[in-house]
Design brief:
This protein has 343 residues and is α/β, with parallel strands linked by helices. Helices cover 39% and strands 18% of the residues. Strands 1-2-4-3-5-8-6-7 form an eight-stranded mixed β-sheet, with helices on both faces. Strand 3, helix 6 and strand 4 form a beta-alpha-beta unit.
Length: 343
């Protein structure tokens, strides 16, 4: 997950006024019934003691742990400054998907003297092949960080979910995509990997009916006060960072409600969801934003990153910080959400 910190100071007054306007709009919308549009979600978040991991979740936990270890420990820094690591990460992810039985398509594009790759695998739909569901996460790291959680967790989740759909025959077409260049200096620019990909989808007139961005998913805490929010969301949502969140813009509200309803139906794990204005801090801070720019509905699935994770964008974002038991529960829950979306 990338953060717009490099130009916030330069435009402080502008963004301060924008945030005041957003806060006012949120309060007005809630007061006028906007709660039902933005924040009221179907079903109930799970509460209580988590059940024991199933054998499937145990296997998934070990696979996710190994993937994150390779990306964040064996490879480590992986971005335009550490291009060898970025290439190694792409090759690792590609080899894993090939071993699973996929034919990997690389969407390559140049920036200065280096080539960058989005990696895509596809399962053609059975009877609604023109309707496409995209599942994706970025595999690059920010600056000096080994990026275990941001976004080794999302890249690993995308990989393991792709493996779990091998041999299945969904009604809609499924695509699993590993995106490059989500982090600065490419974030929210034409060189951001997911925007390069989403623009190509639009140029081809592809019907992307849903996109899930898997972003920074592995850190959880039961401590009261471990969860922070942009004002005024802390007045509404839990103060314990023990849930997974489903976040979209207002235009993606139906998809947010659809995905969290499916997750709550199938999975005993705390969850929160909201469809919020994109300008609210954090709402558009990942690859789902790129799909919004092309008019597609997209949702970010996240542990909320800087609003919870104390090691966000630091050298301390290492594999030992992640809770793989809970990450496995979430990823297995998402498998069933994706199956619902695809059928």
């Amino acid at each position: 997950m990338a953060k717009k910190s490099w130009f916030k100071l330069k435009r402080f007054n502008r963004f301060a006024l924008m945030r005041l306007g957003i806060l006012f709009a949120l309060l007005v919308m809630v007061g006028m019934g906007g709660w039902g549009v933005m924040m009221k979600m179907p079903g109930q978040s799970y509460t209580g003691k988590l059940p024991p991991l199933t054998p499937t979740e145990i296997d998934l936990r070990e696979a996710l742990k190994q993937d994150v270890k390779v990306l964040a420990e064996e490879i480590g820094r992986r971005n335009y400054l550490y291009y060898q690591g970025l290439t190694a990460a792409a090759n690792f992810l590609e080899s894993q998907m090939v071993q699973a039985g996929y034919r990997v398509q690389r969407q390559s594009y140049p920036i200065e003297q280096q080539t960058y790759d989005n990696l895509e695998v596809e399962i053609p739909g059975r009877d609604r092949a023109d309707e496409i569901v995209v599942i994706g996460g970025h595999y690059d790291s920010v600056h000096l960080s080994p990026a275990a959680n941001d976004n080794g967790s999302g890249a690993a989740a995308t990989l393991e979910l792709a493996k779990r759909f091998v041999g299945k025959h969904p009604s809609r077409t499924l695509r699993f995509v590993q995106f490059v260049n989500e982090e600065p200096p490419f974030f929210w620019t034409d060189q951001m990997g997911s925007l390069v990909y989403a623009k190509r989808c639009k140029q081809r007139q592809e019907n992307i009916v849903a996109m899930l961005s898997l972003e920074t998913m592995g850190y959880y805490s039961d401590e009261v006060g471990s969860q922070k929010y942009p004002i005024p969301l802390g007045l509404i949502y839990p103060l314990q960072g023990n849930f997974i969140s489903f976040i979209g813009n207002v235009a993606s509200g139906n998809l947010v409600r659809q995905t969290i309803a499916s997750f709550r139906q199938h999975t005993q794990f705390p969850s929160e969801g909201a469809a919020l204005p994109n300008a609210l801090p954090g709402v558009g801070w990942s690859d789902h934003w790129a799909f919004w720019q092309q008019g597609y509905a997209a949702v970010m699935v996240t542990d909320t990153a800087p609003f919870r994770y104390p090691h966000y964008h630091t050298e301390a974002d290492t594999p030992d910080k992640l809770d793989y038991d809970r990450l496995a529960r979430v990823v297995y829950g998402l498998e069933r959400v994706i199956a619902d979306l695809a059928d």
